Amino acid sequence: MSNYTPKPENKFTFGLWTVGNIGRDPFGGPVREQKSAADLVRLLGEVGAYGVNFHDNDLIPIDATASEADAIKKEFRKALDETGIVVPMATTNLFSDPIFKDGAFTSNDSKVRAYALQKTMNAIDLGVEFGAKTYVFWGGREGTETDSNKNPIDAIKRSREAMNFLCEYVLDKKYDLKFALEAKPNEPRGDIYNSTTGHMLAFIETLDHPEMVGVNPEVAHEHMAGLNFVHGVAQALEAGKLFHIDLNDQAFGRYDQDFRFGASNIKSAFFLVKLLEDNKYDNPRHFDAHAYRTEDYEGVKDFARGCIRTYLILKEKAEQFNKDKEIQSILAEINASDGSMNQYFGKYSSDKAKALKAQAFDRSAISARGLKYERLDQLTIELLLGIR
After folding, report:
1. Domains of the chain: which residue ranges?
2. Cβ within 8 Å of residue 14, ≥6 positions away
3. Is 58 a catalytic residue?
């Protein structure tokens, strides 16, 4: 893999809100002009993306008339056809409009909760119209700054009621669609409910149709909380719930930075790519990030190409890791077993428990063994630095 050219099977996708980010932040206005959804699709075609994802209002402004919406959809469809780009995922903006200032599904106002359901049903229809198979829910305003005004148990129940309602809507419409829930600890609310991937996995099991619902973990969201993102993704993979993933980067403990994939924590990015590739993850690899505010649209293309290129470089490094004789020799050694303990593992039995309780262990001899983790980690660093 010398030129790191993306292929359709890589399933690299970007949101309209990522390459369409105009560089506004809390301290400064836009630095790039707003582009149409159709023009952003053409930009993604230039950088070799497989797919494009959107919030409902990324594509159609919230106050657009029916005729305006039809014209936008026609142009968007034309751009998709021209580029061959597909729409694997869609989502609803339940956080920008002032009506959602106290949440959407968890709002104390029943009118807000009802409007959120209405908006989401319409947005699901829009996503399905363009071929989306996964629908992501990020609860950007589903939280609070003070627990004095909202009972968190009520919030959980309202969230469950909304998910159950929308699952039934999808079933009633016979859509080929699954849901992916996205966790975040804070920002824009002081605290957001179901704040980590682990929270979301537990919540899913309480739903009426848990088989329809998985997770969409995001690198930056877990790094904001100082968590090991690779471990969260592993839990989702092991549970069969990794329906989608948001790739970006983030300095630990900072605000939501949404850096280019691999821009900040390259070793963590490597182990993430290795986990996905070793386990044959086959859903979209979605880059939920945006270019630095310093960039024009040529810089946005550099950003998008950089996300793709870094992933493919790390994919190649993962293959090298798996073939490196010294690395694999150390891994084999530290995982080696003489088989003497096999009788104690697996399903419980009273005889097995009795025998295990009688087993003598030489703690001193066992603990005296060096595990070569320092050497293994250094070899990993050398591989990533390109000297192996």
Report:
1. 8-323, 325-384
2. 44, 49, 51, 52, 53, 286, 287, 304, 307
3. yes
Catalytic residue among 56, 58, 102, 249: 58
pLDDT greater than 90 at residue 2: no
Q: What is the assigned CATH class of domain 8-323?
A: alpha beta
Q: For the segment 321-343, what is each residue's pLDDT rounded down to a tens digit?
A: 999 999 999 999 999 999 999 99
Q: The tokens 């550099």 sit on which residue? A: 302
Whether the predicted pLDDT of 263 surpasses 70: yes
User: Residues 192, 198, 201, CA angle at the centre, nearest 5°?
Assistant: 100
- The predicted model scores a pTM of 0.96
Q: What is the C-alpha to C-alpha distance for residues 326 and 314, in angstroms, rounded to an integer?
A: 19
**Average pLDDT along the chain:** 97
Enter the tokens of residue 376.
Answer: 């293994």
Q: How far apart are CA 217 and CA 230, in angstroms?
A: 10
Active site residue 55: yes
Q: How far apart are CA 102 and CA 251, in angstroms?
A: 28
Q: Of 175, 170, 8, nearest to 86 (Cα)?
A: 8
Question: Which among 55, 244, 286, 290 is annotated as catalytic?
Answer: 55
